[in-house]
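[Q] Does anyone have a clean structure-token version of this?
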Amino acid sequence: MKSTMREFKRGGPGASELNAPRGGIRALWKLMLPYILAYKGRLLLIIALVILSNLILLCIPTFTGRVVDAIGLGAGQVDFPAIYRLGGIILGLSLAGWLLEVARNTLMTRVTQRIIFELRQTVFGRLLHLPLSFLESNTKGDLISRISMDIDQISETITSDIITTLTGVVTISGALVMMVRLSPPLSCIFLLIIPLIVLTARIISRRSRRLFRQKKIAFALLSAHAEEMITAQKTVKLFGLEGYNLETYEGLSAAYEKAGQEAEFSSSQMMPSMNAINNLSFLLISIAGCLLFLKGSISIGSISSFIIYSKKFTSPITEIANLYGTFQSALSSCDRINYLLSQPEEVDLGQKTPDRLAGRVEFNDVSFSYTPGTPTLEHISFRAEPGEKIAIVGETGSGKTTLMNLLLRFYDYDSGSIRIDGADIREMPLRYLRRSFALVLQENFVFEMSIAENIDYAAHSGDSGRIRQAAREVEMDGYIASLPLGYETPLNGDSDKLSQGQRQLLTIARALMVRPQLFIFDEATSSVDTRTEQRVKEVMDRVMEGKTSFIIAHRLSTILSADRILVIQNGRLIEQGTHAELLEKHGVYYEMYQSQFASI
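[A] Here you go.
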């Protein structure tokens, strides 16, 4: 586990974020400012209620001091009428302060929850529009923790911590004013401890901030591993790796525990330190107050009030110190949210939207690399005419899927051009470009919704007739109708209601709902048996009729009837032609064909 954490510190995955500048309170303020301005009216009312309620409650110690003075030092010198009057005032002020605090807390809860709702929408919306390169370079567990745990941490801070801090600032300011009114000499003695408080808080905060950031990263690693292992349970059980994965999880959990202990220990030093300073201040005030009373400069009631105000001054500091850990965690969460929001969205400057695509696709000297200096595709050139079926074959890692990722602009090519009907795909709006294609992957994804909703997912038509027609086109209507709930049958990601082949057919039906002009089948039949493969292939041939289509396949049996076959090797297009033409060349394709069919 040490090696995992070392990767973050020395430049491995996540190092760019760990080494990113720390925004602090300014970053949190910048993040929340647009939402604060949107609700500035209600927030100003909340601030007014905070100030008013605290000013009312700050008046109470003054009256309690007068109650003490009304008792007198000698026997029988108690002014009961004054005590009753002052007691009524104190009771009234307490009730008024309580009502204002209830109103303030109610309004604050509603406003902050609305702000967090909008922040969550903003973060999730940005996540949906980030390039595929960013999403693939970050684990799903880490991304989920940003839109859940990190936002929840910020929510807790602005809901309770900020109110506590704002109340504390008003209380500290008001208490200081009241102390100066009661006794300037005692106030000067009390103010001597403030630099010590500030210095202590600064020293502890710097260390805690760094440790809380490391704790967040450790938690992201732990979540990512848990999510991955839960998803891959069949593979884990197949190879009997439960013990190994438990050991790995234990190592990640231990790293998170250590990071949490260090962060919490550092932040926990704040409150004891503040308490020690507060006790020192009480000692100094008590000694100085006694000396001033003996000189006749202050009354017993005023000393009593001053001590209460000094506690009111220091109590918010203690409360804020108690919240320091969660506040530092919120600042760390803010950094993680800002890091995500700072990532550039997909560039979409396209303006050309043809009325209808014929489907002519041209690759002109296209080169691309995921990592600068390490080319993935080099100088790829070919043309697909409207209605042609183009097969793409090659060894694993040769760049077949990357070719289609460029066509869909999941990634942008480095040089060359890709055109559809003569228009550069970079000049087309992304939404228009991608909805012109139907993409069917090897890993067919089924959403946790009904069969009808899964088929209608891309189109959102709500048209049951179109949904049934799409199902009929892929020969799924009969099976779906035989289910007890028919098209309303609920599915989930690992649904046992559909076989692998049926799930593949369902994804083809989903693609048909958007009525695409171009098709891409990326290893669409590689995970099904031969008989199911034939059925899926028949459906594919039928739905691709008259459409420009690209088929990526390892099994050459699925592409024998293709109009043209492209052979990719090490990122280069080395052969192209029909099945018969390529066999005559006795090249790479011939060797691939022989390896699959020679023994038959």
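[Q] Thanks! Anything notable?
[A] The first strand starts at residue 361 and ends at 368.
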